[in-house]
Amino acid sequence: MSDPHGRRGDDSNPGINRRRWLQAIGVAGAAGMAGCTGGDGTDTATDSPTDTEGDAMGEDTPTPEGEVEIPEVGGTFNTVTSSPVDTLNPLYNTEAGAGTLIGYALDMGYTFGPGNEQIPQLYELTTDDGGKVWTGKVRENLQFGGDYGQVTAEDFVYLVQEVHKSDWAATSASSSWPETTTITQTGEFEFQIELESANLLYPATYDPLMYPIPKDLLEPYVAEEDSQGLQEDQELLELEFAGNLGAYTLDEWNRSSGQTYSRNEDYYMQEATDINQLFENAPYFETLESRVVQEQASRLGALETGETDYASIPPERVEEFDGLDNVNVYLQPQPYNEVCVYNMRENGWNAGPGNLFREKKFRQGLGCAVDKQTLVEGVFRGYANVEYTWQPRWSKWYPSDADVPEYGTGDLYGQDAAQSRIQEAIDNVEYDYSYDGQGRLLNPEGDQCTITLYHSAGQNTERSMAEFIAQEFEQNAGIVVEVNAIQGSQFSNQYWQQEIPENADELEWSNGSYNAGPRDVATSKNPWDMTVVYGLNTYPLNPLTAEVFFAKDSFYNPYGYYPSWDAPSLWEEANSAESTEELNETLSEIFVKIAEDQPMGMLAFPSSRAGYASDIVGPQENFFSGWDFPAWYREE
């Protein structure tokens, strides 16, 4: 879980920034190596936790300690990815897949392990004042490659002060370091971060998560304020400076076919046996190879024949692969949900005048139209759990003691539940929508309402989900849904992102293409109604990050949602909480409000279905599987 990015792909407010929404979105159906993505369980009963949920946070997962047998080093770990990556420059990458590839050769400051324990890698973050001032203690055995020498606190402080906080570099982490956050060097191997206000979950925001970059490498670009040069620097692109800072060394990067790595025999974590005794001689593979294999069938075939040690398994083939002697399938909890997003901007709801998606009761009616349990059982073959609000049930922040409305289940499912709420909504608008005697929703022209639903081309599970939603909407809401396949990049550029208005400076806000302004004036190039192309990160370690999805003027509101509840006040209260109890209470209220408001159709948390060669020792069925990837080995 060292990589905060996920599947399906800024301002100074402590709950929102550009880096977080870049981390928030991923590509439908993709899965990350080594536990960077995962799922919510396997049981289809929504009232009882699944086996996976039972230890989702890994509290009961044993970590080797004391006297253990150290494995032999040898062989190759093979993995496959679905597409090539654009960059391996750690300062500018924002993609999950590239983040994993970078991570083989270059660690970040820390990660999280079972039980949500902060695992210090390059440095450890601690606080003794409730979260306003954090101290970073850098390991003293870190060495850059080449002539760059030892890693010290100065390298991290210089990176932040002169690059991330600059107005020219525009790195992917720049907005994690607003002017109100200061970083200073307090010793050769110690730095201090001071926040504008206390944040108990600061490490879990990933804002203080840094790569180690040599000061001497950066200085020429800083002197010239050369952003393009920094992006194209060969040492950064090829990770040539990494020294002993990663488990493997990048040997070759072929842009179209993949990467080859060799074992880093001087890996600094070999001294971290207090964390995991197996780090003593890590890593345990002589080489690591990552190949680009775009077709899912080919990736699965490679796993079946032993040509790769890892591949993501689609729901309909889990049982098949789990029955193979040479493959183990791990159902891993993950934070990304399946959502049906409604376009509440001016070019949404194209079935008639107005935009019914903006009506809370209408959205509640749509929530009642889809049988979530049947969706989980049918489309995801039971390898998912129903979602009612913006947290998986295994999260410590899930409002288990609150009255969360369960739209799409029981009395809150079916034609009567859906159409009674939709009727309330259309009674509240100025346009003459109505139901006919056959339960069809008619627009003012007397035609049945017809809208579109987009899904990613080539994603079979996503297509099945879209078709099921269309069937349920027509049966229970009386709305015809036309299902359309589209390439993810095309949908992003032409539908999801908005065009920046010419008078952006005159608007109440204009925060870039993912929220270019108020929904009545800023729209995408093409009209659209609904989409299941994207799933979003619910951040079970730090739900404060989810504020970006539920603020009308944030940097990430492509769908134009305006909360009907006092979201700013509640998020401010959560961000300023002085204890976990206080935070839990406020978040519980927030999650109930989100469930009631139905900002989008919150449907399910699929499990990550990770298939590994059966002789690979290391993967776990918990949210943090992969945090100790350098200690994985092949059992003889």
UniProtKB/TrEMBL annotation:
InterPro entries noted in UniProt: Peptide/Ni-bd (IPR030678), SBP_5 (IPR039424), SBP_5_dom (IPR000914), TAT_signal (IPR006311)
UniProt keyword annotations, A-Z: Signal, Transport
Compositionally biased residues, Basic and acidic residues: 1-11
GO molecular function: peptide transmembrane transporter activity
Every Solute-binding protein family domain range: 119-496
Matches recorded under SUPFAM superfamilies: Periplasmic binding protein-like II
Compositionally biased tracts (Low complexity): 61-71
Ranges where the record places region Disordered: 1-20, 32-71
GO biological processes: peptide transport
Assigned GO CC terms: ATP-binding cassette (ABC) transporter complex; periplasmic space
Highest taxon of source: Archaea
Similarity section: Belongs to the bacterial solute-binding protein 5 family.
Descriptive protein name: Peptide/nickel transport system substrate-binding protein
Source organism of the structure: Halolamina pelagica
Higher taxonomy: Archaea, Methanobacteriati, Methanobacteriota, Stenosarchaea group, Halobacteria
